[in-house]
Each structure stands twice: as structure tokens, then as C-alpha cells.
Amino acid sequence: MPLVPDLSPVGWFLFGAMVLLILTYLYFWWMVIKASAHKHVSREKVTNRTLTASLAHAKRKGNTHRFLIQITTKGGALSVVQRGIDNVLAGVARYPVLQKVVWVEIITEDADEVAALQTRYRNAVIPVTPYLLPTDYRTPKDTRLKARALEYMVEQHRAHPTDSYVVHYDEESVFTPDNLARLVHRLSRHPVGISEGMISYGLDWNETTLLNKAMESNRPFGCHECYSVMTSPPPMHLHGSNLVVRQDLENQIGWDIGNLDGSALIAEDLVFGLAAYLKFGKDVFGWHHTEMIEQPPFTLKAAYKQRERWVFGAMQALAHIRQQPDWMRLSRKDRWHINVIIRLRVLTYALGFPVSLLALGSNVVILLILAAEAIREGTITVVAPELTVYGIITTIGLALWMAGTQLGLFYNLRYTGMTRLQKLRDHALVLLVTPFAGVIDTAGPLVAVLKWLAGIREVAWKPTPKLAVEPKQQPKRVAAAEVAAGEKAA
Question: Which domain holds residue 238?
């Protein structure tokens, strides 16, 4: 049997792209091994007594031991924001010592939501303070979008500083009561200036489409690399949520990131991380081992737009950071590392589209030919496949891809509260649709690259919808008890 394949030009393109993608997947599987070996997701049992001892230890050492939960929202998803706050309050109820060290702030552009939050949490056992972002607020560098709201809060904190960690939430973010306790316990014992933890996407899981479930299952799989990024900086990417920053450091760095030649920057988290690295070096970064739970996009359109923004934002951030005065202060190795790794991540993500589309298309053609033969002759002739490098590479690539999606799905299902049988059903269904989801998952990144190469430096930005119902309907309010039920099942 021939070992070297006889391929057309398209076949050789697919072969080369597949080799590159396999190397990428091997790298990510190595990240799985590395992160898992360091127990990157804490399942430690924490009690109120344990927390009391940890906080006392931090206080004796003079370390930061207060925690400000900061929720940033544009407005329009009040019930989702309330779910995050309610889970904080559930954590405080389960671990009473947290009443002394935890409080919540919300920054929103919706005045009605400020009033609603003030009324709802007026008698909460911890301070819950909503802030209204003034419509005429401008930063010195004309920062826009989410970073503008973040900079506004930095200004409030500079005026009234506290020795605390700022725990960044997106509007749908949730720490279960036990995970909130784990976060406080971990950082009280092992202080870190800027840290992150894993994010999974099991909230409102059954409100999304099957294809979305398959796409979102790649995210926890890829998030194993986040452990390496935060423990071996410079940070090639950064979460905007589950990001915990000591307030004095955040006040020094700020979120006034400016813009790129007049275009708003949409990856404020990546820009912030690189700015922190330029200012403080690698020792300020770390990993806090605590998992946060968020929602998947509910529609294919929302998922497509989200992925286009990710890639476009990464290219914006790289171009922006290279214009900063401190860029040349980095070593040549660091500059090369940041340049090459970010571009390589973008390239491999965008390459996934032609590979997925051509591979899916070729398989459809083969199935149609077999079906036509069956109809015409009443039999199907299946020739044993030749053992070629192409076949081996394709099989390995498919196995690595499918297995990565299944691992990510395992993490996403942990906090859904589903039965074991329901989880097995989702594993089987996601396995079946993964090849189709791959096309949609990588279409946005390819479009982002093509836009960038065409000289477009701005992309439309709109937060991913957080409500799975029509705006005119009453949104479903998800109580803390429902999330806690999922936590117990996990």
C-alpha cells in the first residue's frame, strides 16, 4: 500500500493545514496535562472555620483579604445580573465570615436598573451598590465600550481606595457559594496581584442550540491553556471575567486604553494584560484555581459575531500594544513571543474554516456517491482505505478534535443539574454535530482576518445577548437555588 498520498493542489492544502492544526491540538492537549497536574480547578472542601483561619492568616501577614465583586453591564439583562448577585449573597449566607470581607458593585448604563437594584438589595447583609455610568463621561484617551465603564470605576476607587481584590464579573457571571469560598480561601493563603481561573458555560445550557453546545465545548478545553498563560507570562490572552486584580495595581494600570487610530478597542482584557506585563513584569500574574460559570450564546448568529470579535480584537490589541512607548522596553524574545503566538493563534483558528468545510464537503460527496450506487445497483461497494500519511493525519486530527470537544463538554455539564443519562445524551448529540459546528465556529475568525487584511480596523460591537427570551416577554429569573442545585450535582 502506498504511504505517500496522490493529492490534488486542494488536497495538499488540506494536508498542510491539517498538519498545522494537529500540532496545535497536540499543544492544547499538553496544556490539559499540565493544567490538570496542577489541579487548575479547585474542588477543595472549604468550611466557615477554614475561611476564618485563612482570613486571619492573611491579616497577620499583612496581605489583601477583602473582595469587591464588580459587575459590568451595559444594561438590558437585569435578571441575569441579579442571579450573579444572589449567588454571592447565598455564599455569604453559607459562609457567614464572608460578611466581613465581601461586597458588590455594579456599573451600568441603565438608570432604571440602578433604581431596581437599589430597591432589591437595600437590606442585603453586605453592601450592594449600583453605579450609573454618566452618558457624557469621557476618559483622557477617549476609551470606549466596556473599558470606558471599567475606567469610570477605577476613578471611583482612586478617590476612595480600599485594600481589596477586584473580582471582575460580566453580567452573566456566577460564582457558586462554594466557589466563592474557594476563591477567598485561595487568595488569602496564596496572594496574587493579577489572577484568573477557569470558566465553563453551563448556565441556561438547554436554552441554546445543539450546534452552540458543540462550539461552546471547545472553550473549556482551550481554557487549560489559560493556566499556562497566567503562570508563564506574557499573557497572550486574558478573560475579562473571572479576572481578579488587586485594587492598588488596577488603580495604577487603569482601563483608559485609548483607541486604535480612532477605532474603539474591543479586546480591553488583552490590552490590559499586556499593559500590566509591560508595567510590572511576569511576577504579578498567577492562577487562583476557582471556576466561574457563564452562559453560552443562544443563537448561531450571536456565536458567529462573538468569535469574529475575539479574533478582530486580538489583532487590534497587538497593533495597539506595539504602538506603546514601553513596547521597546521588552526583550527581543518577549516581543517575538507576543507577535508570533498571537498571530499563530489567529491563523490556526481561521484555517479551521476551509479545513472543516472541505472535509465536510468531501464526506458528503462520498456519501452521495454511495447512496446513488445503492439505489442504482442495490449494493454498496466500500473499498478498504489505503494506509497513507494523509489518512493517518486526518484520523489523528479528527480524534484530537472530537476528544477535546468532549472534554470541554464534560466541564460545561458539571453545573447544569442534569442527570447522568441527560449528560450522556448531550455527549452523544454533540459528538454527531461537531463537524458541522466546526464550520460555524471558525467562519467568524476567517472573516475577521479577511477584514483586517483589507485594512478595516473597526468592527461593530454589541454584547452577546444574555436573555434566552424575546425582549417583550418577561425574562426568566434564575434563582441562586437553581445554580446551587447544579453545583450539588457536579
Answer: 21-346
Count of domains observed in the chain: 1
Whether 364 maps to a domain, the answer reads: no
C-alpha cell at 110: 441603565
Confidence band of 383 (pLDDT split at 50, 70, 90): low
Q: How much is the pTM?
A: 0.92
Residue 8 counted as domain residue: no
3-state secondary structure the chain: CCCCCCCCHHHHHHHHHHHHHHHHHHHHHHHHHHHHHCCCCCCCCCCHHHHHHHHHHHHHHCCCCCEEEEEECCCCCHHHHHHHHHHHHHHHHHCHHHHHCEEEEEEECCHHHHHHHHHHCCCCCCCEEEEECCCCCCCCCCCCHHHHHHHHHHHHHHHCCCCCEEEEEECCCECCHHHHHHHHHHHHHCCCCEEECCEECCCCHHHCCHHHHHHHCHHHHHCHHHHHHHHCCCCCCCCCCCEEEEHHHHHHHCCCCCEECCEECCCHHHHHHHHHHHHHCHHHEEECCCCEECCCCCCHHHHHHHHHHHHHHHHHHHHHHCCCHHHHHCCHHHHHHHHHHHHHHHHHHHHHHHHHHHHHHHHHHHHHHHHHHHHHHCCCCCCCCCCCHHHHHHHHHHHHHHHHHHHHHHHHHCCCCCCHHHHHHHHHHHHHHHHHHHHHHHHHHHHHHHHHHCCCCCCCCCCCCCCCCCCCCCCCCCCHHHHHHHHHHC
Look up residue 444 and give its three cell numbers.
467568524
Which pLDDT tens digit goes with each residue over 465-477?
888 755 444 444 4
Q: Is 480 within the bounds of a domain?
A: no
| pLDDT tens profile 210-259 | 999 999 999 999 999 999 999 999 988 889 999 999 999 999 999 999 99
Q: What is the CATH number of the domain that holds 48?
A: 3.90.550.10
**Letter for the amino acid at 426?**
D
Note whether residue 37 is domain-resident: yes
